[in-house]
Design a protein that fits this description.
It is built from twelve helices and 21 strands. By secondary structure, it is an alpha/beta fold. Bound molecules: pyridoxal-5'-phosphate (PLP). Pyridoxal-5'-phosphate binds next to helix 11.
Length: 432
């Protein structure tokens, strides 16, 4: 579900023309729909109303302050993975008391900062981390709230680079070992055993892996509640979205499907998980990132050149893998549509960026409408792990970002200035 649609021949984000935004702010340009964001959050929140719960939006998916502020305003908590993300949440007006801190490599500085700010819980990935948390908390004369990330050894059926819940991965502690870890942790005076957490991967499009993992951990959660008084269970994030509606739902084209069928809907996810989590009598935490923001954003790019070689039709655009790395990194699919539809024939097209890497390619031999220099294309469902994973490779400044709400649009990230690319660099004195 999203609020991007085609009005006559022009792609709109809510009530605003995408072409007008591209002309005004330049390209590459990320455009986010606030209504889509809110819709996803509220849908999930409502679906879990039967249990006490907290949605902790996963900041890594898209950390723009305007996105965080929107979600904080809806009552969201946040799943963070660094001190930097905690600072962002605070800068956006989010509450540290609703933050859970994940990640295998938390530094002493990050732990100190998070303890001073009073976060809700540290999701712990190893026993050495528990020892470090206890030591830092003792130094600060505080108690660190902790939950162990239990690895349920469930294959999530997603891309290998975003699978996290099997014993092949660096994440979490094997579920058979978790009780022993809590026993030992209960002897550390500066820890409070607050919960149990899991996260099995990302872009999971069926409910079965979640169900399997929760079912595996539920008896453990009950025993930890009885023995150590834990108060929450976190089912993590990982809910997938539709990137290819034409294939996955039989819908004709993305812009024609107002409700681009979510395969994994909030209702379906809740209907299958609630019977497992309700009997636990624990507060439920969820950590979705992509599910909230993925379909709420697009990346708009301008066609710079059309290069027809006889064998190939290359459309060379001004966005590149530094702006959206998912296709190069995960072979991810993003639907690509012209921002203004013309009557033109379709042909097999490679849409490529200007970066000097063969992997700087958004699609290969995809049947797309013929486009010409100066036209705009939109890469859809680019709200999650798009701008958040962007870089300045090849001396390319970070793209501008715009948030739309109804008929209003505001720049929520200025296009980076080229001079900012080397702002922190210095010529060594002996080179002067
Ligand atoms: C611990 C944890 N929680 C939540 C998420 C969010 O995942 P997603 O964006 O797929 O919901 C991640 C992603 O890697 C994660 O590692």
């Amino acid at each position: 579900m999203h609020y991007f649609s085609c009005v006559a021949t022009k792609l709109h984000c809510e009530g605003v023309s995408v072409e007008a935004l591209a002309r005004k702010h330049g390209t590459p340009l990320y455009i986010y729909s606030q209504s889509t964001l809110s819709h996803h959050f509220k849908k999930l929140d409502t679906a879990f109303a039967p249990v006490e719960h907290l949605i902790c939006y996963s900041v890594k998916a898209n950390a723009n302050l305007a996105i965080l502020r929107t979600l904080a305003g809806l009552g969201s908590g946040f799943d963070i993975v660094s001190g930097g993300e905690l600072q962002r949440v605070i800068a956006a007006g989010g509450e540290p008391g609703k933050c859970v801190f994940a990640g295998v490599g938390k530094t002493e500085e990050e732990i100190t900062f998070a303890l001073q700010r009073g976060i809700y819980c540290f999701n712990v990935e190893s026993e050495p981390e528990l020892a470090r948390l206890n030591r830092v908390a003792a130094r600060l004369k505080k108690t660190a709230p902790v939950a162990v990330r239990a690895n349920p050894d469930v294959a999530a059926g997603t891309h290998a680079k975003i699978t996290t819940g099997t014993y092949e991965n660096k994440f979490g502690i094997a579920c058979e070992k978790v009780e022993g870890v809590y026993e030992r942790a209960s002897r550390l005076k500066h820890l409070r055993l607050r919960g149990l957490q899991m996260h099995i991967g990302s872009q999971i499009t069926t409910v079965e892996p979640f169900e399997q993992a929760v079912a595996r951990l539920a008896p453990l959660a009950l025993r930890l509640k009885d023995r150590h008084g834990i108060e929450f269970f976190s089912a993590g994030g990982g809910l997938g979205i539709v990137y290819q509606p034409a294939l996955e739902s039989g819908a004709a084209k993305w812009w024609e499907t107002a409700a681009a069928a979510d395969i994994l809907t909030s209702q379906r996810y809740a209907a299958r998980l609630l019977p497992l989590v309700k009997p636990l009598g624990l507060r439920l935490l969820l950590e979705p990132g992509r599910f909230i923001v993925g379909n709420a954003g697009i990346l708009v790019t301008r066609v710079e050149y059309v290069k027809r070689t006889g064998k190939k039709n290359f459309v060379i655009v001004d966005a590149a893998m530094n702006d959206l790395i998912r296709p190069a990194f995960y072979e991810a699919y993003h639907e690509i549509v012209p921002v203004v539809r013309r009557r033109s024939q379709s042909l097999a097209t490679d849409v490529v960026g200007p970066i000097c890497e063969s992997s700087d390619c958004f699609c290969k031999d995809r049947i797309l409408p013929r486009v010409e220099e100066g036209e705009y294309l939109a890469l859809l469902s680019a709200g999650a792990y798009g701008s958040a994973m962007s870089s300045t490779y090849n001396g390319r400044p970070l793209a501008a970002e715009v948030l739309v709400n109804g008929n209003r649009a505001a720049v929520v990230r200025e296009r980076q200035l080229v001079a900012a690319l080397w702002a922190g660099e210095k010529i060594a004195p002996w080179l002067k």
